[in-house]
Amino acid sequence: MSLYLFLTLAILTIISALAVVFSKNPMYSVLWLIVCFFTIAGHYVLLNAQFLAIVHLIVYAGAIMVLFLFVVMLLNLNADTEPHKSNLSKIASAIAAGLFFVVLIASMRATELGEFNLPNKTNIGFVEEVGKKLFTDFLLPFEISSVLFLSAMIGSVLLAKKEKK
Amino acid sequence: MDWALLLDKTILIVIIFAVSLGIAAYSTYGERKIAAFLQDRVGPDRAGPFGLLQPIADGVKMFTKEEIIPNASDKFLFIVGPCIFMMTALMTSAIIPWGKSFNFGGHEFGLQVADLNVGLLYLFAVISIGGYGIMIGGWASNNKFALLGALRAASQMISYELAMGMSIVALLLINNSLSLREIVDGQAGDGNVWNVVRQPIGFLIFLICAFAECNRAPFDLPESESELIGGYHTEFSSMKLGLFLFAEYINMFISSAIIASLYFGGYHFPGIDSLDLPQNIAAIVSIAVLFAKILFFIFFFMWVRWTLPRFRYDQLMNLGWKILIPLSIVNVLVTGAWITFFK
Amino acid sequence: MHGLLSLNNQNTPNTKTESTMQLTNRSKVVVKHDLNWVEKLYLPAIFSGLAITIKHLFKKSATVRYPEEKREIASVYRGQHVLKRDDKGRENCTACGLCAVACPAEAISIEAAERKKGEENLYREEKYAAKYEINMLRCIYCGLCEDACPKDAIYLSDRIVPTAFTRGNFIYGKDILVEGIDASGRVDVSKRKKNYEMEGSPKQPLLNK
Q1: How many distinct structural domains can be found in chain B?
Q2: pLDDT tier for residue C134 given thresholds of 50, 70 and 90
Q3: Interchain CB contact of B139 with A (< 8 Å)
Q4: What angle do CA B63, B68, B71 make, to 5 degrees?
Q5: How far is CA C203 from CA B220, C77, C86, C194, in A?
Q6: Is C45 touching B (CB cutoff 8 A)?
Q7: Cα–Cα–Cα angle for C117, C123, C127, nearest 5°?
Q8: What residue of B is the nearest CA neighbor of C56?
């Protein structure tokens, strides 16, 4: 049962992720990305990590993608406002992406596929467990990431502040 | 999969859908009646006795109106927008415990669709997705007023979600659970009081944010008829407009239910346990108690709407970011300190 | 309302200055002061607002449900015209044309005809109006036709002119204007008549006073 669910979700994830890339309209790209996030949240639920799934939805699908949508909505999506790309930059980007692809394939070939077992019922994804882990084993990374957020906040405030003349 | 459980839940979901649609329909009637009474008028009284058939007449009108999809709109998203809004409005009702469970000859019939251990977070996830309905609908209309309304709605929802979440955090500190049923049950019994007594400031913040999340007056800027000709649903007609308007009333019903559950003891009432009723009757009484609370809050929503004028947009943002969020953070700190030192 | 006004009267400081003339002493000087911290919370103001609206929930509504319930119309109200008949059911109008001349909006048009033998029960005098039309879109309901009429024939009744879908439907002919013969068709204009009979009959037009 859960294997079929996993397969369906995985296929949906890949389809939606591809649709993000191949959509002509940036609006649709964003919406496909939201669908992708939903399917990933589905994976979390399969792993019995409901807290992570919901937080993933709230933070990514609920907040960050709304901001993406904001930007895309306010863009002027006419063809003639597209910046002109020179052939040189096209070739350069094609080569760079191709090299990256080669590296990816090489690393994939090198990895050995392990056995995947869906974990049995654990409470690892529940709020209480996550909280305990965060505040005991992973206290330092947790606090450091909060410093990161703080610096991001200060940065945005600085950017938004009016310059004094 | 337990088939009996599946059947139970299906029946419950169908009932809840029917009830929320019915209540939403009669909220439109109630809104007009209450508006009329508060303004010394009579309100709709032509369709049926006391105008009670008015919602049906409105529904028929909505369905038979011409369906217009603007030429320059994004036709697919134009249809998807109202659907998402309606869907998310209906989805929230899944985690609300509607009452104590029935017992039909040994078969327990619970009155909650899903008792998620992350219930409250689920609520927030669904609310935050609800904003997409408005944004997509507004953008797809290809109309500047609709787009402005959509942007207003989205930024308003994001801003007030933060304060709402913070006010909930303080509540969770006290209740030690994210499950709505446990929160409700934690407010009953010996030595327990309603959360509104323990968290008055949190309740106030939550209430204000609930108004903002539902796009209700005085926070109805996304619609603001006078400035944006209806905001995000300017271009919508027929039942697609109906879905938007209807979902707003469903949202109001659900948020009333959540306010009642989180802060006013849900289906509990002081002294309800001491009556020692048989289980099925106790279940009916608990449903009645919850609905009485819900109806009061729906009335309160309307009462406020017909009392307060609309905010200006900068006032709305000031209230959200500069007053409610700091206040809710202080509330969390005070609650945390109280739990640490006095419990 | 009166209470409010009298309250203002008492509280009004003596604001008479040399430069401005005051017609009433109801005006109040508005002083804008900074809000203190209680007022800045806005909550007391919100609650007092809620209290005011909830009071109105228990007040009697001011609505008059029109078609079923009709408001008393003032005796001087000027509504749809009526061409009167006398006690025997004969039309009073003799097509003298004074009403058409008096009409400032030129809404009335009349065609006269001579009464034939055998029509004595229809028309009171030898001449009568074969056609009598009032264009209700032009009419300004001033009532000058009523004043001008020497034969007690035209009155403005207290009926409200209904709406119509075309302009043509607003030109009222004799079929609409003349009152019916039987008692149910009669239009009561006694209220209007009173205005003219205030200082003894025969009728004296109001305008001459």
Answers
A1: 1
A2: very high
A3: yes
A4: 160
A5: 62, 18, 16, 9
A6: no
A7: 75
A8: B38
pLDDT digits (tens, 9 = 90+) for A130-155: 888 888 888 899 889 999 999 998 99
Whole-angstrom Cα distance, residue B254 to residue B33? 21
pLDDT at C161 over 50: yes
Terminal C-alpha separation, chain B: 42
Q: CB C56 to CB B45 under 8 A?
A: no
Of all residues in chain B, what percent carry a pLDDT higher than 90?
Answer: 2
The Cα B242–Cα B82 span in angstroms is 9
Rounded distance, CA B214 to CA B124, Å?
13
CA distance A41 to A48: 11
Distances (CA, A) of B283 to B72, B105, C23: 53, 15, 69
Cβ atoms within 10 A of the Cβ of B55, count? 21
Of B39, B42, B304, the CB nearest to C56: B39
Domain residue ranges in chain A:
1-76, 126-165
Q: Residue A118: pLDDT above 70?
A: no
pLDDT at C104: 92
DSSP B17: H
**Residue B227 pLDDT exceeds 80:** no
Over residues B37-63, mean pLDDT:
86
* Contact check, Cβ <8 Å, C52/B307: yes
Share of chain C above pLDDT 90, in %: 14
pTM: 0.77
- Sheet architecture: strand order including C108-114: C108-114, C127-135, C171-172
Check B308 against C59: CB less than 8 A apart.
no
The mean of the pLDDT values for chain C is 80
CATH number of A1-76: 1.20.120.1200
Q: Is C95 left (phi over 0), alpha (psi -120 to 50) or beta?
A: left
> C 52-111 residues with CB below 8 A of B?
52-54, 56-57, 59-63, 65
Give CA–CA dist C149/C99, Å, rounded: 6
**Number of neighbours of residue C99 by Cβ within 10 angstroms:** 26
Q: Are C81 and C155 in contact (CB under 8 A)?
A: yes
Contact C59 B307 (CB under 8 A): no
Which residues of chain C make contact with B306, given a CB cutoff of 8 A?
Answer: 53
Contacts of residue C63 in chain B, CB cutoff 8 Å? 40-42
Higher pLDDT, C12 or C20: C20
Sign of CA dihedral A145, A156, A34, A28: negative
Interface predicted TM-score (ipTM) = 0.79
* pLDDT tens per residue across span B321-333: 888 899 999 999 9
Q: Which residue has the tokens 């008055």?
A: B200
Looking up tokens 């927030």 gives B124
Domains delineated in chain C:
81-199 (3.30.70.3270)
From chain B, pick out residues whose CB is under 8 angstroms from the CB of C60. 40
Tell me if chain B has a CB within 8 Å of the CB of C173: no
* Chain B nearest CA to A99, separation (Å): 37
- Dist CA C48 CA A101 (whole Å): 68
Q: What is the distance between the alpha carbons of residues C141 and C130, in angstroms, rounded to a whole number?
A: 23
Q: Which residues pair with B202 in a beta bridge?
A: none
Residue C6 vs residue B103, higher pLDDT: B103
Regarding chains A and B, contact by 3 or more CB pairs under 8 A is answered as yes
